[in-house]
Structures are given as C-alpha cells and as structure tokens.
C-alpha cells in the first residue's frame, strides 16, 4: 500500500534506480503543471481556463507523490538547478498558441496514460499512485483528443495551426520512451501503443502524422540527462523565485 | 469504510470522524464521500486515521485532516495522526446512496455507477438535471469548479449544473 503523509514525504524509496525513475516522472508532472498553470488568466474561454488548471492540479498532485518518493518534495521542486531536473523536454516547451498546448497535451497524456497503466499492473512502489493517476489522466487524454479533432477538423485556420503545432513538437516525442531503470517497463511496446493511438487521433482529425525525426540532433542526450531547452530556465526562475526569496516562509 | 477488527471505541471515533463535512461539498460527510478508510487506536489517547483523496492533487485533503483532528480532539483524543493512502484508489462508486441523494438535492448531478475499468464513461447514460429532472442535458466542459466535477447544461430548463464525474 502506498502511503504518503500530507505534509511531508515519508516513504522515500531506497532503491537508487527507483528513486531516479520517480524523480524523472515527478519532474515531468511538475514542469507540465507549471506550464499549464500559465494559462490561468489567459485561456481563450473560461471553461478552458478551468480545464487546464484542473489538469495542472492533477499533475501537481502526482508530482508531489513521486517527488516524495525521491526525497523532500519542496527541496526538489524549489532548490534544484536546471541541470538537476530530469523531465523530458516536451513538457518544458512553451504554451505557444492554444494549438501548441493541445498538441503537447495529446502527446504527453497519451504517453502518461499508457505509462501509468503499465506501472499500475506492476509491483513497484509506484503501482498505487499509478492505479489512481491513470483514471485522472484518462480525462486529460479525452480532453486533448476532443480538441485535436475540433481544431484539426475545424476551420482552415485552426487546421493550419494544429498541424504546425503537431509538427513542431514531434521531435520531442522520442525522448518519452527512453528506458527508465527500476520500473521494469517495456518501452518498445509502450512506444508502439503510443504511436498507434496518436496516429488514430490525428487521422480522425484530418491531420497528417508528422514525418520528421522524433528525436533532436543533440547526441549528448536531452531532458532525462539534465539537458534542457532554452525555455526551461525562465520557467524555473518563475517557479522557484518566491521560495528562494523567502526561504522557510509559510502561509 | 472501516476495515479490520474494530473496538466499540474505534467504531465510535470512526463515526465522529466520518461525520466531519467535506470542506468543498459541505452537504456530504467524509463517510458519505467514502474517503475515510479507517480509525485505529494505536495507544492510550492516540489514534491513527487513514484517509484517501478523491483526486491525487485534491487540495481539500489538508483541511479534511485538520477538521478530523479537531473533531477527535473534541472527543478527548489528544494525539491524532491522519495518514493519506492512495491504494486502493478511491472511485466514485465509494460515494454512498445517501451521499448521492444529498448531491442531487444540492444541485450536483451524482456520478453514474461504473464498471471496473474507471475513467470516462463511454456509454452515453443519461445524466439528469438536478434542477428540473430532465435527462436532456449536454456537456459544456469535462472540468469544472473542482477536479471532481464536469460542467453541464440542461437543454430543457437551460440551467448549467455541475456533474460529479465518474472516476
């Protein structure tokens, strides 16, 4: 049974491979929550503002559990430097226009749902969280798919923007399937299922499946190795500023 | 839900903790919401309460914990620890019949019963408008005022309403 305390992590994992896997997945959830939170006050319609904030909240809840498995959640979120974060580069990409946010959501929620379903069926300490989170992420994926259909099969303008967004983010999707030690996942099967699912949605939306490479040209690695894109530093500055300016402050 | 063997005192304390209202849906008690997992005496005057969140990121958990602590302090238990557990995952099927009735009375369409798979319900089972009772309602957004609700509109009386979505 997965046990967490509401104020501090109590069940820190002892297996180092599992700790780094929890850190990587926790960073994915945390960074995407922060990005989605940027829509608050800026979304095209009120319902979308609420939807994106709700998705961000789910991800933040998952991040808290995962980071608590890796150490102290607040220290990990607020006191690490850019190179110590292990999130994939996809989640740190800027919100862009609404189509970019939806393309990022489609790619990531499809991956995360498959990932959590696989983890829920396993016997690692992440299984309890995964069994719960997979149900939350099902709604995120549903949301992203509906918007992909609506934009892809909408006006000429919405189709053009959605297509541009899907193509722009495509090269960040290969990294999602880098093997993570300690989880016992079949990443090849995960990737095949992801590709099937995304292809089906894009096809229904009348959008071409992007043909470019699914990885960047930088051979040294990417987010999982602590190498991030230019946008990430600014995200961290905003996220960490308050905590670093007022260490130990409480409400 | 209280599991394992319980003493009469534990049952009484579980009743007290279970009667604490949900901070976001005060018409429901924590017992009716199905989030109270157990109350166990771990020593004289020392109690451990297990609670499960509806959603992993539910911000109401901390308030629930404080409210439970206060309710049990008020009944002579000085040392109360509230532990959050995630497994087995909470589902909307854990909301009691009485809880569903109260939700509906409060203007929130209760969740539909679901199979073991969980997540969005793919079959279009009718969701009844809590205001006029019409089953002719439409989805406005999968996400509403809190993570656990979706926003719908009744096409008969035109009123928008929250639906406690299936999880």
UniProtKB/TrEMBL annotation, chain A:
Transmembrane segments: none
Family annotation (PANTHER family): 1,2-PHENYLACETYL-COA EPOXIDASE, SUBUNIT C, PHENYLACETIC ACID DEGRADATION PROTEIN PAA
Name of the molecule in the record: Phenylacetate-CoA oxygenase subunit PaaI
Organism: Streptomyces hydrogenans
Lineage of the species this protein comes from: Bacteria, Bacillati, Actinomycetota, Actinomycetes, Kitasatosporales
UniProtKB/TrEMBL annotation, chain B:
Domain MIP18 family-like span(s) in chain numbering: 19-85
Domain (PaaD zinc beta ribbon) ranges: 124-165
NCBIfam families: PA_CoA_Oxy4 (TIGR02159)
Annotated protein name in UniProt: Phenylacetate-CoA oxygenase subunit PaaJ
Organism: Streptomyces hydrogenans
């Amino acid at each position: 049974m997965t046990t967490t305390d509401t104020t501090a992590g109590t069940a820190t994992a002892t297996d180092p491979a599992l700790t780094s896997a929890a850190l990587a997945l926790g960073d994915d959830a945390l960074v995407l929550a922060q990005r989605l939170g940027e829509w608050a006050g800026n979304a095209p319609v009120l319902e979308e503002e609420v939807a994106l904030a709700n998705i961000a909240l789910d991800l933040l809840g998952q991040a808290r559990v995962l980071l608590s498995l890796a150490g102290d959640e607040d220290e990990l979120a607020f006191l690490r430097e850019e190179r110590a974060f292990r999130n994939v580069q996809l989640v740190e990409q800027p919100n862009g226009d609404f189509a970019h946010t939806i393309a990022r959501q489609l790619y990531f929620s499809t991956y995360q749902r498959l990932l959590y379903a696989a983890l829920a069926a396993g016997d690692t300490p992440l299984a309890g969280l995964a069994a719960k989170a997979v149900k939350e992420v099902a709604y995120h994926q549903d949301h992203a798919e509906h918007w992909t259909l609506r934009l892809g099969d909408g006006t000429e303008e919405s189709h053009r923007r959605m297509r541009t967004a899907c193509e722009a983010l495509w090269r960040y999707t290969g990294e999602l399937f880098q093997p993570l030690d300690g989880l016992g996942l079949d990443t090849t099967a995960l990737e095949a299922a992801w590709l099937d699912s995304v292809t089906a949605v894009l096809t229904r939306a009348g959008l071409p499946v992007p043909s470019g490479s699914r990885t960047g040209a930088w051979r040294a690695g990417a987010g999982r190795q602590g190498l991030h894109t230019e946008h990430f530093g600014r995200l961290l500055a905003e996220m960490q500023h308050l905590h670093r300016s007022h260490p130990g402050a409480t409400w | 839900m209280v599991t394992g063997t319980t003493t009469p005192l534990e049952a009484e304390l579980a009743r007290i903790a279970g009667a604490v209202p949900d901070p976001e849906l005060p018409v429901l008690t924590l017992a009716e919401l199905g989030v109270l997992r157990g109350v166990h005496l771990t020593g004289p005057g020392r109690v451990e309460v297990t609670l499960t969140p509806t959603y992993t990121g539910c911000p109401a958990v901390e308030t629930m914990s404080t409210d439970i602590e206060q309710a049990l302090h008020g009944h002579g238990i000085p040392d109360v620890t509230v532990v959050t557990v995630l497994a087995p995952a909470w589902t909307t099927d854990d909301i009691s019949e009485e809880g569903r009735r109260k939700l509906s009375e409060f203007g929130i369409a209760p969740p539909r019963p679901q199979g073991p798979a969980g997540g969005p319900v793919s079959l279009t089972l009718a969701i009844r408008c809590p205001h006029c009772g019409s089953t002719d309602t439409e989805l406005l957004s999968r996400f509403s005022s809190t993570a656990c609700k979706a926003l719908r509109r009744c096409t008969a009386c035109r009123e928008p309403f929250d639906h406690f979505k299936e999880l």
